[in-house]
TrEMBL record:
<dbReference type="InterPro" id="IPR029058">
    <property type="entry name" value="AB_hydrolase_fold"/>
</dbReference>
<dbReference type="GO" id="GO:0016787">
    <property type="term" value="F:hydrolase activity"/>
</dbReference>
<keyword id="KW-0378">Hydrolase</keyword>
<dbReference type="InterPro" id="IPR002925">
    <property type="entry name" value="Dienelactn_hydro"/>
</dbReference>
<dbReference type="Pfam" id="PF01738">
    <property type="entry name" value="DLH"/>
</dbReference>
<protein>
    <submittedName>
        <fullName>Alpha/beta-hydrolase</fullName>
    </submittedName>
</protein>
<feature type="domain" description="Dienelactone hydrolase">
    <location>
        <begin position="27"/>
        <end position="249"/>
    </location>
</feature>
């Protein structure tokens, strides 16, 4: 259970977020709502990396999903304790030895349960998740609990073979994994194992994996858009995610 230097590096994306901060069941959430008509019974839960709601990149990405017709709710799964902005690009991965033990499943499971329960009260019947790095295990949790209907994870962290097998055997939500060339936390070996576990029709609900050459862990959120390969990876993984949501949600 660890993180890598790419977990705290990347490029900040410029832009003014269009969503707003709301309290849902007492949980701080960033909410991005489509400007036009959209299905009120569907919500995309955006499960963040370790920078959480404060990272501008994540809010802009949530806005982009809203532009594609999905209401997005980004709950604070970090217990109001995201990795601080000053750590961005610092290389100080030693911070994780103190931070990680404070952010186990017992901290984010109640958050997700409360938010999902409250959204159901408003008429939401179908949930999808898009989890980045730290947000991958929470996405798996919601699928295994039967709460989410579509799962997308990008450059996931903290998923072992046993987690993949548990998802295959116990979840019904179709799964998309956006992977890349250089990823210490989900390397090519792990990508191949995922294909073995889910591919070839072994996971009936549906399985797809994208692979982006020239990209490193974090590319889907914090990628350097001046690099053509990284730009292709970020934009391509976003497009693949939207298409997957359109197909299954």
């Amino acid at each position: 259970m660890s993180f890598c230097k790419d977990c705290i590096s990347g490029v900040r994306h410029e832009g003014q977020p269009e969503g707003k901060i709301e309290q849902i069941a007492g949980i701080e959430c960033y909410v991005a709502t489509p400007s036009g008509d959209y299905p009120k019974d569907k919500v995309l839960l955006y499960l963040t990396d370790i920078f959480g709601i404060p990272l501008n990149n994540s809010k802009l990405l949530a806005d982009d999903f809203a532009r594609n017709g999905y209401k997005v709710v980004m709950p604070d799964i970090l217990a109001s304790d995201p990795i601080s902005d000053e750590i961005f690009n610092s290389g100080k991965i030693d911070i994780f030895k103190d931070w990680l033990p404070k952010h186990g499943r017992e901290t984010w499971i109640p958050v997700l349960d409360k938010v999902v329960a409250e959204l159901k009260k408003t008429g939401v019947k179908r949930f999808a998740t898009t989890g980045y790095c730290f947000g991958a295990p929470p996405a798996f949790y919601l699928a295994l609990k039967g709460e989410s209907h579509v799962t997308v994870i990008s450059h996931p962290s903290h998923l072992e073979v046993a987690d993949l097998e548990e998802y295959r055997d116990g979840a019904k939500a179709p799964l998309l994994i956006n992977s890349c060339e250089v990823d210490q936390l989900f390397p090519k070996e792990s990508q191949a194992i995922a294909d073995e576990v889910f591919g070839g029709g072994k996971f009936a609900p549906g399985y797809e994996r994208t692979y982006w050459d020239g990209c490193v862990h974090g590319f889907a959120v914090r990628g350097d858009m001046s690099n053509p390969k990284v730009k292709a990876g970020k934009e391509g993984s976003f497009k693949a995610t939207v298409e997957f949501l359109n197909k299954y949600l």
